[in-house]
Amino acid sequence: MAFVLVDSVVVDVLEPLVIDDQQLLGEAFLMRGRNSRNPYLVNKNGKVIKAYDLLNESPNGIGFNGAFGYSFLGEGKWVAKDLLYRYQLYDLEGKKAKVMESINLGLYSVTISFYQTFFRGLIKDGEEILFGIEGNLFDLNSLPKENRDKPIYYDSVKTIFTYRVKDQFLKQMNAYPATWEPRIERKYVGNSAPFIAYHRSKHLMAVLPKVSNQLFIYDFSGNEPVLLHEVTLRHKYRPQIIPEIAEEEEYTSSYPRFTGLWFVGDKIIVEFKTRIPEDILQSLMAKSPMRVDELPEFQEAKKKFVKTFYLVIEDGKQIGVVEGLSVPGMLDYTSESGEIYVNDNINPEVEREYNVFYRLKIK
User: Count of H helices and E strands in the chain?
Assistant: First the structure.
């Protein structure tokens, strides 16, 4: 099994771009400037349809600082999650239609990703819905101090959500499945949020705790998600027994956490990376605790020990493994039609005045 290069999408924009979303039918992309956070509407062949001028405080403006991310809402609208955590709705011309208030209980954490958008717009039973995960739906202070780094934490975190557009009705779900091994065994393995993914055509939801060997796949065509598959994930570099991980060990632990989750057509791919052994990393941190990643020895250790693997799942079973990508760059986006897009614009080997996204398929 391998990721095979099909072709590439070239976008004539100077600043580095990332793909936030793609239409199900029209196949246009919604891209985001990595530095500016400006949104771009781009057709499937890379032609810029519209470079929006919305980074301002005008009636149609998102705000000077842009948004955390963007997502289509059906074929004719898109949504911006602004820096005040509100959801602003636009038509394809860039006219603002609605502002949905923040769902946050407070500002307890800020998570920023160059590639990942933590919400998705979709149409379900004719209604416009936002689906996602939001850490600020949970206040750690709601737990007694002695329980904040204990397994009881996992029983309380309802941060997966749906948010209905027409009436701003919010529904919350527990982020850690009831049959996740550390939750059953009452084992604390850190407080990192799981990865989630949603298949808009089939209304499937996938949940992947980062410290785990389990993937949970749900039918979400009804009002509540119904568990379809609990997939056991295996690889020779993944220990079967999950260790307890204290809060202060989350950075140095050599446990190979999962680092990504995507629907790709009828399949799901799960990404993990091997890590620098704990004793080597601790010795490097002793040399430079604040800037360890700038040490030449760190870069050498990273090159030697950190490898990327992709587990491929179909029909509730793991069917293969792919080691690394066949092209330079980072996996940026995958589509319900089965395409994988690799972004080679952040640190390209050769400086360019345009963006390149490699389009791959699983074979």
Answer: 3, 24
